[in-house]
Specification:
The chain is about 45% helix and about 15% strand. It is of the alpha/beta class and about 375 residues long. The protein has 2 domains: about 190 residues, Glycogen Phosphorylase B (Rossmann fold, 3-Layer(aba) Sandwich), CATH 3.40.50.2000; about 150 residues, 3-Layer(aba) Sandwich (Rossmann fold). The N terminus is likely disordered.
């Protein structure tokens, strides 16, 4: 028999690196507010460099449960998460389920909560790339449709939801990742303590490649690696496990000044982002982090959810074309386009989320 619901209990579902960062901000605010939260880690990112290290260095409460799902095809992975999370929610009867972003962990948490009639809150709601071939686009759209509270990082996200007919429970709270950038900036190591420690600040590029649209398309991945290897400065690439597997299958070798290193923790990544001359990435989070730290960004995709960064002149969409990638880097090699604008709130998004959650579940905390 399941336990009676505790109207102050919030179950937070995480599974991937960007979610750990966001959860660090919100969990800190929830703890300050007196809310009763427990974290469930699906195990989507499961090796030390992609998981445990983040919990340790970001001072996130240890997950009450690690489901250990691991990687696999989308259907199998999401199905395994859904089955496991359903059992967790039946056993623990949380008052609310909190999900982050757009991963398979997000979708599984959303579906499990909805089918058990548990209210759902989505941090980073309303983002749209308008590319339905992206698994992330499907995940976030479905999560948004069944959420009771939708925490939007920008007015663009609010407008996206309005166009889809979603207005109830929508709040523009700012971006919790900007909160994280402000909070952890002073805790980051020096460049000499990072994987690029032998390089000079502002004299190297930083790259990440992990999205399925690039790793699962051999031609795109080959073109991206060819472009990275042809750039005029050293390119530091902390390798994602999925990408390592794919380059091994394709027989790709790092060429030119491309330097592949093991995955790094959040604080080391902050140090690298701040010291790099240009960031090249297919990560949504890193596009924003580049702006937060005043580093120009070249996005290795054909579209972005973070359109404000492009409109501000700090981000260029280059896709997987070697010519476009090289041209974008050359454009930024002389520096960023002035002072980076503040586009994602005032650094109090986590507190706003905590206050709204507490109000919804009848709590008294103010975040």
């Amino acid at each position: 028999m399941s336990k009676a619901p505790d109207n102050r209990t919030i179950a937070s579902v995480v599974g991937a690196r960007p979610q750990f960062i966001k959860a660090a901000v919100v969990s800190r605010a929830l703890d300050k507010s007196g809310a009763d939260e427990f974290i469930v880690h699906t195990g989507q990112h499961y090796d030390y460099g992609m998981s445990q290290l983040f919990f340790r260095e970001l001072a996130i409460p240890e997950p009450r449960l690690n489901l250990g799902i691991g990687s696999g095809p989308h259907g199998r992975q999401t199905g395994a998460m859904l089955e496991a999370l359903e059992k967790v929610f039946i056993d623990t009867a949380p008052r609310m389920v909190l999900i982050y972003g757009d991963t398979n962990s997000t979708l599984a948490g959303a579906l499990a909560a909805a089918k058990l009639h548990i209210p759902l809150a989505h941090v980073e709601a309303g983002l749209r790339s308008f590319n339905m071939r992206m698994p992330e686009e499907i995940n976030r759209m479905l999560a948004d449709r069944i959420s009771s509270l939708l925490f939007c990082p920008t007015e663009t996200a609010v407008e996206n939801l309005r166009r889809e007919g979603v207005t109830d429970g929508v709040q523009m709270c700012g971006d919790v990742m900007f909160d994280a950038a402000l909070f952890y900036a002073g805790r980051a190591p020096t460049l000499s303590e990072t994987a690029a420690g032998d390089l000079v600040e502002n004299e190297f590029y930083l790259a990440t490649v992990h999205r399925a649209e690039n790793t699962d398309d051999p031609e795109r991945l080959k073109n991206i690696f060819a472009a990275l290897g042809s750039l005029p400065r050293t390119v530091v690439l902390p390798i994602h496990p999925r990408t390592r597997g794919r380059i091994g299958e394709l027989g790709l070798e790092p060429g030119g000044a491309l330097r592949i290193v093991e995955p790094v923790g959040y604080l080391e990544m902050v140090a690298l982002e701040r010291a790099a001359r240009v960031i090249l990435t297919d990560s949504g989070g890193m596009q924003k982090e580049a702006l937060f730290h005043g580093t120009p960004c070249v996005t290795l995709r054909d579209e972005t959810e973070w359109v404000e960064t492009v409109e501000a002149g700090w981000n260029v969409l280059a896709g997987a074309s070697p010519d476009n990638i090289r041209a974008a880097v050359e454009r930024f090699d002389s520096g960023g386009p002035g002072e980076p604008p503040r586009l994602y709130g005032d650094g109090d998004a986590g507190a706003r989320v905590a206050r709204t959650l507490n109000a919804f579940i009848g709590g008294r905390g103010e975040g």
